[in-house]
Design brief:
By secondary structure, this protein is an alpha+beta fold. It has 7 helices and 12 strands.
């Protein structure tokens, strides 16, 4: 499983950003977004790929009854809108800034394709990144289809551990400082917020986890 997360945990901004490449530096700029600003909407033209220089962005869509469904929340160094590289013409999701310090580099698909044509190593990294992201989404779909809610939640904690966790040497706990609200977590694992609260409190009473708004603690992982 660790191989799936390896590329996700690297700073993709440093790998993909055009300022590294001499021919593209003069057209390189960073756009600033405030909390709740949309970067793009569903059905918008898919002509760019986006790199997060700072802040957080949530990716999601709206269900038929108007409910917001969050697919993921991305942070500094990550990439989104990448399906445009593969020929997607219209967005099938929205991208929205989560905080007031979001800074994003938007790259045209034509620029990405030119960079990929000119640099085989760069091209390999792009396709590897896309492949890893598809694997992650497939894994989440498998959990939604075949696992119960508690199992889905514990698997989600394992994802968070890879991305946001660090071990507390004094207690042996895995401390996860993450960007998700309980509403986001419920949406990501396909359950309701009341059900999520019940399961999290059961896990807390069983001393499997402890948690507050900004932190989840997996007890005695070491």
């Amino acid at each position: 499983m660790s191989t799936i997360w390896f590329f996700e945990s690297t700073n993709l901004f440093k790998i993909f950003c055009p300022h590294k490449y001499k021919n593209f530096r003069e057209n390189h700029k960073i756009d600033a977004y405030r909390k709740n600003d949309y970067i793009y909407f569903e059905e918008d033209s898919a002509s760019k790929v986006y790199l997060i220089e700072d802040g957080k962005v949530k990716i999601g869509y709206y269900s038929e009854d108007g409910e917001e469904v969050i697919k993921c929340i991305l942070t500094r160094g990550e990439v989104f809108g990448e399906k445009a590289i593969l020929g997607e013409n219209r967005r099938t999701e929205f991208a929205q800034s989560v905080d007031n310090t979001t800074a994003i580099c938007a790259i045209s698909v034509n620029t990405m394709h030119e960079l990929m044509r000119n640099n085989k190593t760069f091209s390999l990294k792009v396709y590897k990144f896309i492949g890893m992201r598809f694997k992650r989404l497939e894994r989440r779909l498998e959990l939604l289809l075949f696992k119960d809610t508690k199992t889905r939640l514990l698997e989600f904690f394992n994802e968070l551990k890879e991305d946001y966790g660090h071990c507390c040497p004094d207690t042996g706990d895995m401390v996860i400082e993450h960007p998700y609200t309980q509403k986001d977590i419920a949406s990501l694992i396909g359950t309701s917020r009341p059900t999520l609260n019940i399961i999290m409190n059961e896990l807390k009473e069983s001393q499997v986890i402890d948690f507050n708004r900004k932190e989840i603690r997996l007890k005695n992982v070491a």
